Amino acid sequence: MTNKFPGLTVSIPLFFNEDESIDYKTLTKYIKDLGTQKYISAIYSMAYNTRYRMLSEQEVLELNIEILKLAKENNLACYVGHPYIFNRERLEAYLESISKHNPAGISMLYPERYYGIDEPIIDFLKLPEKFGLKSVLHEMKLVSGFDGSLINWPEDLLRKAIRLDSVIGVKEDSKDEDITQIVLEECKKKGSVCILAGGGKLQALKFTNKGLTTWLNGSTIFCPKIIDKIYLAIMKNNDEEISFYIENIEKPFFDEIVKKFGWHLAHKAALQFFGYGMRYERFPHPMMPEDSYSQIHDTLKNIQSNTGKYE
Q1: Helices and strands (H, E) in the chain, number of each type
Q2: Please, are residues 257 and 304 in contact by the beta-carbon 8 Å criterion?
Q3: Which helix (DSSP H) or strand (DSSP E) does residue 248 occupy?
Q4: Nearest residue to 16 via CA among 7, 29, 8, 25
């Protein structure tokens, strides 16, 4: 691995058993399979894919300790998040505890509404520094404190946040190309990592020639053993490989499944089809119904057949 090609950033899904307990057996298998790949910049335990909102504070801590242990065993860098609901005392207690397990960074997702006042956000992002930790800004749209609408981070606030000494990277999740360009520019200046989220490989391809070197894994979430090949194809501008992947794996998954059922139901169903646990969820998160799962069987079967090209 080289600095030029650091690898994908891989979001960690959370698997449940039928009784809603955490399926650690499948989680272990999944991270072990990730460990077979050379081009992974980091694995990433985060608020939504890793289902923090369905977990207690203690479960978030215990889960992330286990993920960090598995990451170390498989020679993977690892970012972990924090409980979604907290006050200062509880968040500090969590950060102090998790700091003992050496995460590469703490994914910081601001949970409150934005009233045009920057200080609470800046203080929030700096908090891990108190415990010798670095922050990865989970930069998705803010919720306006005035009308509840979803809004982009103001440019001045975004630049100020990225320039903090404690911030080593940004999960850029605005779905706005102008914002992506700002984040990428600021990260390049500072030597931080810009992790593009959303839009799949087609969106990443718009920014690789501008310096983007990592993005969230997307469709490879259900076929982690082909990460090296598709990542290198993109970074080396192998048009034939890129076209095959997009037309035969990515587009069918997003166009025929994600657009109908949404990312969170779709990727858990695909994981089940590819042999990673079951699509069980914990209350109150919905699960794709059996009739819907049957409807997508043929699409997933064709996708699976096409992933064989990379084996």
Answers
A1: 14, 10
A2: no
A3: none
A4: 25
| Among 244, 238, 194, residue whose Cα is nearest residue 216 | 194
Q: Which backbone phi and psi does 289 adopt, to 5 degrees?
A: -65, 160
At the topology level, CATH places domain 8-236 in TIM Barrel (3.20.20)
pLDDT digit string, tens, across residues 2-24: 458 999 999 999 999 999 999 99
Q: How far apart are CA 106 and CA 54, in angstroms?
A: 19
Cα–Cα distance between 292 and 279 in angstroms, integer?
12
Q: Are 81 and 50 in contact (CB under 8 A)?
A: yes
Percent over 70 (pLDDT), the chain? 99
Which residues have a Cβ under 8 Å from the Cβ of 56 and sit 6 or more positions away? Answer: none
Q: What are phi and psi of 9, to 5 degrees?
A: -105, 125
Nearest residue to 121 via CA among 113, 129, 130: 113
**Domain spans in the chain, listed from the N-terminal domain onward:** 8-236
| 40: three-class secondary structure by DSSP | strand
Residue with tokens 């081009």: 39
Q: Positive or negative CA dihedral for 29, 33, 36, 39? A: negative
Q: For 43-59, what is the mean pLDDT?
A: 97
Q: What does the block give as tokens for 279?
A: 């699509």
Quick check: helix, strand or coil at residue 227? helix
| Contact predicate 257/278, CB 8 Å | no
pLDDT in tens, 56-104: 999 999 999 999 999 999 999 999 999 999 999 999 999 999 999 999 9
Please tell me the predicted confidence (pLDDT) of residue 199: 83
Question: How many residues in total does the chain contain?
Answer: 311
Helix axes 119-126, 155-162, angle to 10 degrees: 20
With 0-12 / 13-18 / 19 or more C-beta atoms within 10 angstroms meaning exposed / middle / buried, residue 21 is exposed
Q: Alpha-carbon distance 304 to 187, whole Å? A: 36
